[in-house]
Design goal:
The chain is an alpha+beta fold. Helices cover 35% and strands 13% of the residues. It binds FE2/S2 (inorganic) cluster. The site of FE2/S2 (inorganic) cluster has 13 residues, from loops. It holds the Pfam family QcrA_N.
Length: 358
């Protein structure tokens, strides 16, 4: 006599061919798996092409060798770039914009050299190194029934003793406290903003700003700047008692020197000055110390922090040290009253060279 359950089961699969049904279903019941974490074992080993075809192995060998060779060439390119590209060479590279040509070349060549070593090693391991498969027995990770029962009993006992289940008010307020406390961290995220926008690119200098001597707080005249001296200055309208004085002076501080016009090597720099008086940002383009140690014979300005040296006679070009850019120069003129004034803001952001990415 047939079982009614068996009939129901077969009827429900009328549209499925028998070969797609597991054998247990054909008998009308699915047997529970004994061990849901049973080790399925290793699939049959498949040989790689390179294991059975010597020509494929040779191709892989050549590919690996090519990657290592490209790495060597890139390293040579790195050294050549370091020697050949001037430290203050600025190039336009899409999409980065105007950046240091030397930094770009060094980063690119070193990146390619390291990538090719890594890619060559991975290709070597995947195609040529031994492909032997090994299995390592693992002990069962499931706890024994006794341990599970003990854990559940301990949990029930702890719940009872803490009165967690009985004291509903305590339980509810605890959940509330735990849910709210992470919000304090979220609120602190507000301090990450607002973003600086273009603030770091601009200073207080604008057309017509008088140049104020930082020591006397008086506007400077050309005759105040003598040969061989270095005068530290700031824009008019900046009061040391203002709450934002430190923020503004950190971007706008300048130094003025007077050179013999014939000593100025950079014609553009000479044109931006006034009869040999040149005005440069004094904020070192390394990490922002004042670069105001002046050697009047050589016209070099030295930063005391890490010894970056700038040639003020040659557009404040970097001669030595970790600074990545010349000191920006401020265009100046003499106004009708005989005072030195700015013709506008710096053309590039003063200070550490990473602002160029801002
Ligand atoms: S801050 Fe000037 S050299 Fe480092």
């Amino acid at each position: 006599m047939s079982n009614p359950d068996d009939n129901d089961s077969r009827n429900s699969h009328n549209n499925v061919s028998d070969e797609h049904l597991p054998s247990e279903q054909e008998r009308g019941a699915v047997a529970p798996a004994d061990d849901p974490f049973a080790d399925p074992g290793l699939p049959p080993h498949e040989h790689r092409r390179q294991d059975i075809d010597e020509r494929a192995a040779k191709r892989s060998e050549r590919t690996v060798a090519l990657l290592f060779t490209v790495s060597m060439l890139s390293t040579i390119g790195f050294i050549a770039s370091y020697v050949a590209i001037p430290i203050d060479k600025i190039v336009y590279i899409w999409p980065f914009g105007h950046i240091s040509g030397l930094n770009f070349a060094l980063g690119l060549t070193l990146g390619v050299a390291l990538f090719c070593i890594g890619a060559g090693a991975v290709h070597w391991a995947r195609t040529l190194m031994s492909d032997e498969e090994m299995s390592d027995e693992r002990h069962p990770i499931e706890a024994t029934p006794e341990v599970k029962a003990q854990v559940l009993a301990d949990f029930a006992q702890g719940t009872k003793e803490s009165q967690f289940g009985r004291r509903k008010l305590v339980r509810t307020t605890l959940f509330g406290a735990l849910a709210l406390v992470p919000l304090s961290g979220v609120v602190l995220l507000r301090d990450l903003g607002p973003l600086p926008g273009t603030k770091l690119r601009h200073t207080m200098w604008k057309p017509g700003s008088l140049i104020i001597n930082e020591n006397t707080m008086q506007p400077l005249r050309p005759e105040d700047i003598t040969l061989g001296s270095l005068t530290q200055a700031m824009p008019e309208g900046l009061d040391p008692h203002d709450h934002n004085f430190q923020v503004e002076i950190a971007k706008a501080a300048v130094m003025l020197v007077r050179l013999e016009p014939d000593d100025i090597k950079d014609p553009k720099s000479a044109e931006w000055g006034h009869e040999g008086i040149l005005c440069f940002s004094k904020i070192c383009t390394h990490i922002g110390c004042p670069a105001t140690l002046y050697e009047q014979q050589t016209h070099h300005a030295l930063c005391p922090c890490h010894q970056s040296t700038f040639d003020l006679a040659d557009g404040a070009r970097v001669l030595f040290g970790p600074a990545g850019h010349p000191l920006p120069q401020l265009r100046i003129k003499v106004n009708d009253d005989g005072y030195l004034e700015a013709l506008g803001d710096f053309e590039e952001p003063p200070g550490p060279s990473f602002w160029e990415r801002g």
